[in-house]
């Protein structure tokens, strides 16, 4: 991914290396000021309660040996509300993994500060993204990332995004109920009808993004409140998924069947295309996905959960997953 205009830089050439393996994360609560970080290796992490079935997947690009610059966060706001987020560090710029880490840290901190009631949720999310924008700029190294967030409350969702990480909602019959518009020249061209989806998959400027966290001109797009039907599936993904699979292909994989298995098949197919398949799109990139399915609409909340993966710059030196207190997070961020 490269950033348009003043932020555009050349991609660094790196040596390909196979993924080293995958590990499983533990779970924690935001309300207890904890945030889990995992370096490099990530498997499908599954969460299930009476209302939601969710899983998360993150894998480093096969075309580099530098850290995974994507990050995933799942945060409990209150007993009825969960926030899911994916941040994608801009790979053509310095400090992409720092930017995505900071974005989710700022979001987590804002959620923790403003959990007095549901009326504060929208403010908490927007403030978190705005604080992330300021914090990434303060690195003064040209770092940037995209971010996509959904709030899930009692059978409804509301999306927020900056950049080209996509939010998609599909029914179990394959009807796309919502699809975010990528903040990129190609994304706007598709939305306006100037390009068809297939042309966009192969467009030479598909890697350019025009709105990022870390830019003084950043803007946050907030979508409508959408009521979910049972078996609707919500997907949040970095561009590593949708640059290698079409929306039709993704929907066909994730709309039905076991959620974990469906997401794994889609992610593995996208990864295979990154390695090069004749006649198919091929854009090697970090790949991160959060999938949420409404298993049974309920007013009861589920198990509090907070996960972040692929954010190596904030992990322990040994690479082990580690839960950090709010004060520890602040110390680590100040050191970046």
Instruction: Kindly report the spatial arrangement of strands forming the biggest sheet.
Output: 3-4-15-14-9-10
Write down how many β-strands occur, each being a DSSP E stretch of 2 or more residues. 16
DSSP summary: helix tally = 8
**Judging by the overall fold, what is the CATH architecture of the domain at 27-162 and 182-229 and 298-335?**
4-Layer Sandwich
Shape: globular
Mean pLDDT: 76
Oligomeric composition of the shown chains: single chain
* CATH fold-type name of the domain at 27-162 and 182-229 and 298-335: Phosphatase 2c, domain 1
Strand content: 15-25%
What letter string, H or E per element, gives the SSE order? EEEEEEHHEEEEHHEEEEHHHEEH
**How far apart, in Å, are the first and last alpha carbons?**
22 Å
CATH superfamily of the domain at 27-162 and 182-229 and 298-335: PPM-type phosphatase domain
Give the helix proportion (percent range): 25-40%
Quick description:
This protein is an alpha+beta fold and 336 residues long.
Structure, explained:
This protein is α+β, with helices and mostly antiparallel strands and 336 residues long. The chain has a domain at 27-162 and 182-229 and 298-335: Phosphatase 2c, domain 1, CATH 3.60.40.10. The protein contains eight helices and 16 strands. The protein has helices at 96-113, 121-138, 185-192, 197-201, 239-242, 247-254, 259-274, 326-335; strands at residues 2-3, 35-37, 45-48, 52-59, 70-78, 81-89, 145-153, 156-162, 166-170, 176-179, 208-209, 221-222, 226-227, 233-237, 287-294, 322-324. The strands form four sheets. A six-stranded antiparallel sheet has the order 3-4-15-14-9-10. Strands 5, 6, 7, 8, 12 and 13 form a six-stranded antiparallel sheet that branches. Strand 9 (166-170) and strand 10 form a beta hairpin. Helix 1 (96-113) packs antiparallel against helix 2 and helix 6 runs antiparallel to helix 7. The model is unreliable at 3-39, 298-327 and 329-336 (pLDDT under 50).
